[in-house]
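Most newcomers find our protein records easier to grasp once they have seen one. A record pairs a protein's sequence with a compact description of its fold. An example says more than a description, so a record of this kind follows:
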Amino acid sequence: MTQLLRAREGVITEEMRRVAQEEGCDPQALRERIAQGKVVIPFNRLRKAKKVCGIGQGLRTKVNANIGTSVDYTSVEEELDKLRAAEKAGADAVMDLSTGGDLREVRRRIMEEATITLGSVPIYEAVVEASRKGHSATKGMKAGDMLGAIRRHCEDGVDFVTVHCGATRGVLKLLKESQRVCGVVSRGGVFLVEWMSVHGCENPLYENFDEILSMAREYDVTLSLGDAMRPGALADAFDRVQVYELNVLAELTQRAWDKGVQVIIEGPGHVPMHQIAAQVQLQKELCRGAPFYVLGPLVTDVAPGYDHITSAIGGALAAAAGADFLCYVTPSEHLSLPRVQDVWDGVMASRIAAHAADIAKGIKSAWEWDKT
């Protein structure tokens, strides 16, 4: 049974107790927020992580670090060095975004080493497997390939998975009519937009959402509903495409809760400072307080090489406004694959932003830390 279902039954699980102790909050109050969907504990029932992470209302703002191999750089050892750097710098979660080498073996190695919450993006694996069979991602990949990848990640013990279910054909229609500067910048979003365009079919992840919910419920995997249409430039922020997708994610959030599945909502992206609070407020209202996970957001487009700074500015504003989970951005964002030092710098920048926001939100432990 999932953390959400247990919370609704009035049960305080061992994971809830551990999170409550870590956060210095009342276990019963925490259970109530989990039952409402306002807090999640990503914790696959097959995985025994040394640390448990609570994300959501009233808790410390959490930080995620992305790592993973690529086609050109397949060294697992280097990714493990990045994992250790992320953990030492204070990351609460890490996502394996690998696209090179034996993906399942890479995931297994990272999972064995990681002491913190682990996430992944299964559609990357589906695309890689299709290309290795001599197919293009758009023509050769089938709906079953995408769903099969999600199941493998659940079976392997991943705590949360990003699924871009909100990129529907309705979104695609608006996208074609839009005047976006950067189009689609989410890698998962690009794959699905191309797939829908070539096949003339609905997004399989949306169409088969009930099947995805069944997998997530079986393993108590938290779904991170991906923002495939996140803006990749300030000029694209808060456009009709982004808001349409957010409305779809709100619908899917309720469907997940109805099945007892924990949900996180992913958000932008590149956002000017004066829009950040409004974007967080809209997400919280539409998705009824579900935890909000933001990439940055980056507050300017003109600082390649320093995007860990631009994202820390945006992250502090977003978290102070109510965002719960910050995905780091490294100095090498937009330039190259991150090195170990880039991972360290990215986590530290986001960690500082999260702490500053926690002070603004009145998180007791943040104030106590500063007083020391």
